């Protein structure tokens, strides 16, 4: 990123002592500060219920946050004090109307002292059930409209189905315009996600073959080795379909499958993404039974340690039927992708932590000459999102030596493998874009609406199927056996993180 000239503003973080703020927001802001990407006089106001003073907040919340989670922790000695002077703590209950009145007075005082000209960003780092009440209180107590420009940042989940998402959007639109609403999906801030369009549209040898004439299928995997950690209460109400597929994975589908936009303007890119979501072939009950696999992990071994089953996790019901794994086969009904299956999978307590996109190209016709010298592997384009960031192409080539034996080789670029490379965190890019008013990497309402329209029938079909036989995979396995059969039935296979071997 190259620093832009940004307007001074106030960033108000509701949930300012919570896990998201400590793990992601404060470290991201500090990293931006060290790298010179913050406005000259950005003020940050952490709103919370706990009885901190400004100094105790800095020592008990801010300092441990940066020491533990900032990629610029080595710069603390030089930068902590000047950064900390920008942060303020405001104590109130988010359900107390009087608290919002006092907050308005506090913001006006800071604006007059700091020259932010009434520009305000409201970040809702609170549980989803608090979104509506906070928005309503902002409107009713006069915090919005602001004297300058105003923006609001909403974390996922954006509703738990289409009706709830529609109601939340209605509440938002009573206080903010669509252009002022930033629905954050941290996946879109990751370096290699931003790189997908560059790989496609800036290389002449990719775009001509980026279609159903040459691509056999697409695999998108987002796997985690961890369980639900401290999110059991939320996760048991949501599940993998709502928590991951509806937003993260479908966003990756749109970036892989979208048509070239007319320009790099925000709305041009968003328009093409929406077209993909609207072109997804709906899954009826019969298709869900065949092409939508769900699972829940039992006890098992991760990294040599025994871990408990999902139903014994904190705040999870002992008879929970919430899925912790989803695998889907879906199709995009348009001219470019007709007939090309997209295989999606995501889950917790899987063998690897990895997010990657694999495009497998169609195989060559069987040629006897080549088959005498080894098995031809399919050509692959692998985009690695995390933990490794990079891209590689798998080709077939002659092995060095006097014979003509054919082996797969890679043309490999790894962005964060070299010593000293420290890629910006996703929240750095996203917060920076909020401050400069660029919503390209945020989801527009019609994207959210189209995603829920695709996901809701899957949830309904699963509910109608009755109680699933959970748990159906052990921690440390790649989901239930049905997830493997999803591809085996099509004479295909899942690829491992390194793309070299199939998962069995």
UniProtKB/TrEMBL annotation:
Keywords: Carbohydrate metabolism, Glucose metabolism, NADP, Oxidoreductase
Keyword NADP: yes
Domain spans labelled Glucose-6-phosphate dehydrogenase C-terminal: 197-495
Active site: 248 (proton acceptor)
Any one cellular-component term (Gene Ontology): cytosol
EC number: 1.1.1.49
Pathway per the UniProt entry: Carbohydrate degradation; pentose phosphate pathway; D-ribulose 5-phosphate from D-glucose 6-phosphate (oxidative stage): step 1/3
InterPro entries: G6P_DH, G6P_DH_AS, G6P_DH_C, G6P_DH_NAD-bd, NAD(P)-bd_dom_sf
Record field: catalytic activity: D-glucose 6-phosphate + NADP(+) = 6-phospho-D-glucono-1,5-lactone + NADPH + H(+)
One annotated GO molecular function: glucose-6-phosphate dehydrogenase activity
Pfam (any one): G6PD_N
UniProt-listed Gene3D superfamilies: Dihydrodipicolinate Reductase, domain 2, NAD(P)-binding Rossmann-like Domain
NADP found in the keyword field: yes
GO biological process, one term: pentose-phosphate shunt, oxidative branch
Occurrences of domain Glucose-6-phosphate dehydrogenase NAD-binding (ranges): 12-195
Binding-site positions, substrate: 186, 190, 224, 243, 348, 353
Signal peptide coordinates: none
Top-level EC class: oxidoreductase
NCBIfam families per record: zwf
Family: Belongs to the glucose-6-phosphate dehydrogenase family.
Biological role: Catalyzes the oxidation of glucose 6-phosphate to 6-phosphogluconolactone.
Protein known as: Glucose-6-phosphate 1-dehydrogenase
